[in-house]
Fold this protein.
Amino acid sequence: GVCWILIPPSKMPGGGGAMMAKKKQQKKAQELEGSLPGVGTGMGGRKVAPAAQEDESMLEDLSRAPKAEKSDSFKLDGSKPQSMLHVKREFKRFLSEFALYSIWLLSFALTILMTRDNTMTFQFANLFRKNIITGNGWDTDLTTVDQFWDFLLEATGAVLANDIFTRAFDDFFAAEPSFLYGNKRVGSLRIRQVRVPPSKCSTFYTSQLLAEGDEQVKKNIQCYPEFDTGAKLEKTFKKEGDFQIIDTEAQPWFKYWESKELNEMPFFSATFASYPGSGFYIDVNEAWWTADGTDLLLEIVPMGDDLVKKPMMNITLSQLKNSNWIDLKTRAVFFDFSFYNPNMNIFLVVRIVVEFLPSGIVSSYSTFRTVDPFRYGFSSSGELIVVALFATFAVLAMYYATREAKLIYRNASKYFSSFWSLVTFTIVVCTLALVGLTGYTIYVTRNIFDNLSASPDQGALQSLGFLLDQEKNFSGIIIVIMVIRVYKFCTVSRSLSTLTRTLGKSAKFLAVLVILFLVASFGFALSSTLILGQDNYNFYSTSWAMFTLLRAGFGDFDYTEWLSHRFLGPFLLLCWLFFANAFLLNIVVAVICEAFVEVTEENKEADAAGHMTLVDALWDLGPVRRLLQMQKKKRDKIVKLEKTLEEVDVDGDGMTDVKELEGWLHETDAIDLLGVKDASELMAKFDLDGGGALDPEEVQKLKDYVREKRNEVDQEMNGALEEQMDKSRAVRRATMSGADSSALNQRMAKVEQTVIGISDQLADLKSMVQALAAGGGVALGG
């Protein structure tokens, strides 16, 4: 056997010092807070119970209490009673932080709401998307090169048409130039293309498929690859099979321009690739239908720096087509235009990208951006309010940035280990970036429109529209993260924080499940791309197939899409649904449910132990404060009685008669406090000699009686406060259901059995020690 020798902690090496230090800390905390269990000293040197001591501390000056250390949440230490002063201080800190963050969030939200009218902007964009740019060669119907030219003919004629309305003396038969349904066209219509240089064809193509012909000729045959962002562009326009040098002065649309020269964005992402802002372009100012109505005469704006010296050029769209400006080397054609609506003071910036794929098919990608570059102005009260709101948002962003920087400087590892700190850090970084982006867009807007002597460049308008659109998207992401951070303030209550604590407990396992899901979905995406991608657009690439699989996992799928392969398609769908829904999704639900049950049990155990959150303490503080105020009013009245008794002898003859007592009672409202009906009853109670007046000795007895009343009220205050606090704690403990109480009783029974077992073992150990001692020695071990 093994002999266990029990040593008291105070006898252990270093144990006594640790206990003494702990006692000193407890004593110091008791002196500062007055909240540890035991008897403390109240105001006036009186000894009061802990609950009364806590409640009296509410009446002390807040400046005497030590400041609480700021933490990432608003919690109370549930292991000990909390003074009302501490609760009040924590509540003030919570309110100040919540109010400041609410101002930050609301200023940003109101700025968004006051600068975005999605109803009208949608209709503005929809006018062009559905009613103006129409025809067979538009949107999903645009699939071939011939359809592209049909689209170019109809769209150019529609965009450059003049309005049927006019401003010239209400002459409705005179068309207003550059207007379309009341919208002013801004800048020229720009048509720009991006081309790729030729490359060598595969040996199989030249040697096997082209069996006939001269070998030297076959070696010179060239192919044209798909567009790659890192690949070189064709900067000198070379027509297929034509070795003549093109006169770019006579035909300027064959001249190459860099993106900076065109004021274009460096890159723009369409469906299949990201294309540069450079290329070959023409700017069309006006267009007229020919007499037969089958062609357009285009008025082309001169290109280059010396625009004043160069005249306008005219060319028909069919001439542009016949000049082979579009051929096998073309990979993308940009169709850009912009309109301004004076009624809403907003711009519509449109870009339609027609991609020419190496497979021979043509695909379109369009963006209709409604932007308001003048949303921050000073010409109206509404604009001033918007500026003030955004300024408030920017100032608070700087405040939070400074505060978070200090916290990171003090303890970076602790800061970044907190989830809510990471959320706050993300918000601060994003908001500072948004403020910088907003300032830059305002700067770009001023450069374009201030001192405008001519129509603004279409490339500059496209760049501005892109920046404003990204600012809008960035704002949408930030507002979501800021709303999520509101859940941080739910830590003041166990019920409110149930959601966040449940997700926190299940976060690690959910992260593992997400990784497993991504690995499996990548495998399914590769498989579906190989099996179905050839015949179904939703599976044409691995990334797009993963998105399609995600939708299918939530029930959003079309069964006919999976019939591209009538055997493997349905089988693949069933396997994926079983894995995503029947297996993985159920595990996720089970993990979250388990975490929720664990959090619920923690809430019940904390309630049973009487641990308080800030909401619980405030709930107790309400009735306690009301009771304290009622008792305090009663006590103040008695104190007033004591002071006015010194002046009850109005005539100064040394005797207090009934009339003087009556005046004193009515002045101080002491009838209810002293429990008498009138002055005669009070006189009869204290006029011991029956002389009809109170002498100084009898008045002193009346003073002693009032003092006793004040002491009784003090005792009632202490007892009532302690009783109220006990009731509040008992109510929280009583919220446990019968099943919870039964479970607690079972756990207590187990603890009792364990204690009994330990007691038996100690008794056996004692017997062994006595037997060994009687035998003359102590043997350790067996």
User: Anything to note?
Assistant: The chain has 21 helices and 15 strands. The longest strand covers residues 183-195. The chain has a mean pLDDT of 75.
